[in-house]
Amino acid sequence: MSTLESQDRHSAVDVVGGLLAVASIILSAIAMGFGLLLELDARPGRTAFVAIVLALVSARLSEKHQSLALKATLFAMFAWVVGMTVAVLTENPLI
User: Fold this and answer.
1) Does residue 1 surpass a pLDDT of 60?
2) I want to staple 18 with a disulfide (CB 3.0 to 4.6 A). Which of 1, 13, 59, 65 is the partner?
3) H or E, element range at 21
């Protein structure tokens, strides 16, 4: 019984890895264009790059959240492309 409980519990490293993946998704959404809707100074060249780095650190940090980190990495890459396109079309700064 105690082995099942220890497998279900998350260590501090797993929690930090999950939080980094979620932070990456939020930064990706800001870089993708939601920052323009919220009137933030969202520069997709910087914001999406930081989101990709956070997602990669999250993938390396935690084994339990690797699928979330993979999704966060792919979403950050997609957000970079969309954010750069939106920034060019709306004549906002890229970097």
Assistant:
1) no
2) 65
3) helix 12-29
User: What are the counts of helices (DSSP H) followed by strands (DSSP E) for the chain?
Assistant: 5, 0
User: How many residues comprise the chain?
Assistant: 95
- 8 A C-beta contact, residue 44 and residue 31: yes
Distance CA 32, CA 77 (A): 10
pLDDT category, 45, cuts 50, 70, 90?
A: confident
Q: What is the DSSP letter of 34?
A: I
Rounded distance, CA 66 to CA 53, Å? 14
Long-range contact list for 26-30, CB < 8 A, 24+ apart? Answer: 27/51, 27/54, 27/76, 28/72, 28/75, 28/76, 28/78, 28/79, 29/79
- 3-class state of residue 50 by DSSP: helix
Q: What are phi and psi of 50, to 5 degrees?
A: -65, -35
